[in-house]
Every structure is written in C-alpha cells, then in structure tokens.
Write a structure and sequence with these properties.
The protein is built from 6 helices and 10 strands, in the order E-H-E-H-E-H-E-H-E-H-E-E-H-E-E-E. It has about 210 residues and is an alpha/beta fold. A 7-stranded mixed sheet has the order 3-2-1-4-5-6-7, with helices on both faces. Helix 1 links the parallel strand 1 and strand 2. Bound molecules: 5-O-phosphono-beta-D-ribofuranosylamine.
Length: about 210
C-alpha cells in the first residue's frame, strides 16, 4: 500500500500529534508525517516534532497578518511537501476556504466533545469542558470529523463517549477526554490512509474488511 504523506497542524502541546506519531510507528499505518505546521511559534508541539526529525513550519498572524497570506503560505507548503492528507491535531486557527476546497475530504479534525453538542465558534480548549459541566450533561466525548467550510460541521468519522463524573472539573474531564482523543485520532488516520472512508452526503461510510458499517 502506498504510504500517504501527512501534514499535522498544531497550536499547543502536541499530544495528539504524538499519539499519531506513535501509532504510525507501532501499528503499521501506511503514513508518514512529512510536515508539522503550527499556528504559533511557541507551540511545544514544534519541539516535539523537531526531536523526531520531522520538518516544521510556523504560519502565524505575526508573519502573515492577512488570512489570504496564511492560506497562500499553507497551500505552498502542502504542495512543496507533496501532502496527501491534513490532520488538525489541536489546531486553534481557521483553515481557509481555498485550502478546504483544494483538500476536500482530505482534512480531518479532532474535537473534544460529542458533535453537534458543545462545538462551533468559541468552543475550544477548556471552554468546551466547562460548557459541558455548566449544562449538566452526563456524557461528553471526542469526535473526529472531516473539515468543511463551517466550524466543526463536517461529516463525522468517529466518536467515543466519556461519562461526566459528579466531581469533575473542566481539567479532570479534559484529561479523560484527551485520552479518548489519543485513541480516536490515530484510528481515523489509519482508516483515512487505507482508503476506508467514503463520504456520502453527511454520512461517512467506514469500509472495514469489505463490510460497510
Ligand atoms: C485537545 O483537546 C484538542 O482536541 C484540542 O486541543 C487539545 C490539546 O491538544 N482542540 P494537543 O495536546 O495539542 O494535541
């Protein structure tokens, strides 16, 4: 099977990036992380990528104040590195419409709630988990989805729930959801790179061992 070239997009600590890295090494996923793109020069994920010998690039507002410039910079990186798929792993910036169009159904994102709850504009980081607690929801979780022009609105690939505990804080809930993210994102990358995902309208059909589920 042809090895797919990935660009992983990060903004922070990069634990999801590491989870994908580990899974590629240990679980024989036909993929190579060719590039890590960060929206912040301060992201710890950049050091982690460099330690693994992976090329990194920063496309931030300081260097590229206009969104058009950031899109141009990212598109030319994706071309230069011959990228097949983009993996948004804790990426807090907006992916521009030209990138989405060019990479239709080839960009996936991990979100730390069960979409369509607690997602969309303003729902990122601790805010998501605080909103779950404030609402009194008994279940949260993680979602991997394709990226479309909306915020967290693209077709859902995988979801897994996490029970909210009575004494949870945003921090404790975030930590349990993050563990699930580390499980789901590599799984979705594996399915994507093996060509097992088919988008039909809003639904993602997963073709496992010849069986559609
Ligand atoms: C994760 O919850 C991710 O879903 C979110 O940012 C958090 C940290 O991700 N959007 P990471 O450690 O940088 O992968």
């Amino acid at each position: 099977m042809q090895v797919k070239r990935l660009a992983v997009f990060v903004s922070g600590t990069g634990s999801n990036f590491l989870a994908v890295c580990d899974a590629i090494e240990k679980e024989n996923i036909p993929a190579k992380i060719a590039l890590v793109i960060s929206s912040s020069a301060k992201a710890l994920a950049l050091n982690r990528a460099a330690q693994k010998g992976i090329s990194t690039a920063v496309v931030d507002r300081a260097t590229y104040p206009e969104q058009e410039q950031r899109q141009d910079a990212i598109l030319s990186l994706l071309k230069d590195y011959n990228i097949d798929y983009c993996i948004l792993a804790g990426y807090l910036a907006i992916v521009g419409p030209r990138i989405i169009q060019e990479y239709r159904n080839r960009i996936i994102n991990i979100h730390p709630s069960l979409i369509p709850s607690f997602c969309g504009q303003g729902y990122y980081g601790k805010r998501v988990h605080q909103a779950v607690l404030d609402y009194g929801a008994k279940i949260s979780g993680a979602t991997v989805h394709f990226v479309d022009e909306g915020t967290d609105t693209g077709p859902i690939i995988l979801q897994k729930s996490v029970k909210v505990q009575q004494d949870d804080t945003a921090e404790t809930l975030a930590a349990r959801v993050l563990k699930v993210e580390h499980e789901l994102l590599p799984k979705a990358v594996d399915l994507l790179c093996r060509g097992k995902l088919q988008v039909v309208g809003r639904r993602v059909i997963i073709n496992q061992e010849g069986v559609l589920s």
